[in-house]
Amino acid sequence: MKSICLWLLFIITLQNPTFSQVSEIKIEPLDSETLKGKVEHDIVVAQDGSGHFKTIGEALDAIRVYLPKPLIVYIKAGVYKEKLTILGPVTNVTFVGESPETTIITYDDFAAKNNMGTFETYTLKVLGSSLTFKNLTIQNTAGPVGQAVALHAEGDRLVFENCRFLGDQDTMFASGENSRQLYKNCYIEGTTDFIFGSATALFENCEIHSKSDSYITAASTPEWVAYGYVFKNCKLTAAEGVTKVYLGRPWRDFAKTVFINTEMAEHILPEGWHNWSRQDAEHTVFYAEYGSVGVGANPASRVEWSHQLSEDELKYYSKDLIFSGKTIDADYYGNRWFGYQKDSSFNLEDAWKKDVKNFPQIKPIETWESEAVTESRGHVYKELGYRKLQLDVFFPNSAESPRPGIVMVHGGGWKSGDKELQIPMAIALAERGFVTAVVEYRLSPEAQYPAAIHDVKEAIRWLKVHANEFGIDTSRMAISGSPAGGQIAALVGMTNTREYEGVTSLESTAEIQAIIDMDGVLAFHHPESAEGQVASEWLGGTYEQKPEIWDAASPLYLPSPVFKPTLFINSQYPRFHAGRDELIVKLNKHGVYTEVHTFPDSPHPFWLYDTWLETAVNTSLGFLEKVF
């Protein structure tokens, strides 16, 4: 039996490593005994000898503990009969099979075999934290002989994507009172209590398949744990002849299990839940549903001690809240370990549909091709391992000498938006003689503060390193943003200490000479500020939970600010310039130039519409001509 710890770095769904990359890896057979605990490069496991190792256990034994950078273990197709315990301090490894149909980890222990207990019957036991498995089958082939666990998972920050878990009774032990586990696009089958334990586990887009009349879940959530098992957008299916299945029963008091927007076939009993013949448990468990569909969805017939979630209650079941904890949620690259889906809620079309109701004269600004401007798109300024961050540059054709540069940061409440929203203004400014760059950065669903600050600073460094290519005068560079981008622009421009800079290999600074803040808050916790949920999502908690982070992200409250000439362009709404007036007092005290321009009757995203764009551009030009 192989025993080792594995810390697998979470890689976002559509950008995970695939077997197309295996051909790029140098393959030389390795001696697992000689190299035990020393390997730092990507590994291929293949039973036919075409990889570095023939077994998974040998590969795991070879990996260096506390890796300085991530590596990938590719597992070629095969049936790997191995009983694995993943324990200790091997970190930053991604474990990828070819497909769940062809890459199979299997064993056949069961509780009645050699006097084994349930928790000795596992095929794969996962005690380490920050682990990810992709494209695998994990199975226990003992059959219907009692408890026989396929997966025993107790670590924290565990991710299983596109995996199959096959067994009968007790297929999956998802447990650990401080464990958070994500199962995405997985298939899980079993007979009795085949998903059981104390973990906080989210099942997204999974098929849950019952092989007999019995119970799906048997949660043992501790009283002090908020969530337990949450199933979202799943599908409950059953084998032929299976007609009487309960959603769950409480293995222990205070069990928590919730099904949200789940399709339930006819095998689910109308009452839905069972009390395990313990009426006292009815007063402590939390069993709930929202939006169940299908023949098995019978909200009116459910046991009276279960719940149907309200719309208000549903909002507490977002992924970031389910997985919230006292520790940071960042992986090696600073991104959320449980992945993200791109938020497109802030876009030009939807913004216009909302604002035109109050401003019927407005027309959205569309991007145009300018004969006076050269466009240079898709420059990679930062590689994150799992994906690349890009920026687009626009510069005047007729420039005979280096021109001032403007780095432009889009808005969207730190969670949405796109650099494309800044392109019309970027072209307009380039037509007037500036080199402009619109920047992609990581939003809150992907990575919390300060990742966006680090990204934008890296973009500035990259532009300086490539200044000759675009004709940028690096001694005259400004940063502009709106509106969340305005807050980011101000913070980037006013900081130069380590916590704001991030890690870089570029030989340049992120210093700029001027700031343009369009409706970006300068203080999150402030009498004029109305920032709440979206700020909390970016800053990792409410002000009450993370006051030091809220203040650190507020330009007004910086303990050692680097003051720069600043232009504030604002809409009619005071909440979007919270902290501005106090900051101007500080700037004036230090003799730093400021300007304020307010559009008295305007929507919040005024820069997106023809009525205000030209004025905003001219105001920016006038300011920059003065300070440059």
From TrEMBL:
Species per Swiss-Prot/TrEMBL record: Algoriphagus chordae
Protein's UniProt keywords contain rRNA processing: no
Pathway: Glycan metabolism; pectin degradation; 2-dehydro-3-deoxy-D-gluconate from pectin: step 1/5
One Pfam family cited in the UniProt record for this chain: Pectinesterase
Phylogenetic lineage: Bacteria, Pseudomonadati, Bacteroidota, Cytophagia, Cytophagales
Catalysed conversion reaction: [(1->4)-alpha-D-galacturonosyl methyl ester](n) + n H2O = [(1->4)-alpha-D-galacturonosyl](n) + n methanol + n H(+)
Official protein name in the record: Pectinesterase
Gene Ontology BP terms: cell wall modification; pectin catabolic process
PROSITE patterns tied to this protein: PECTINESTERASE_2
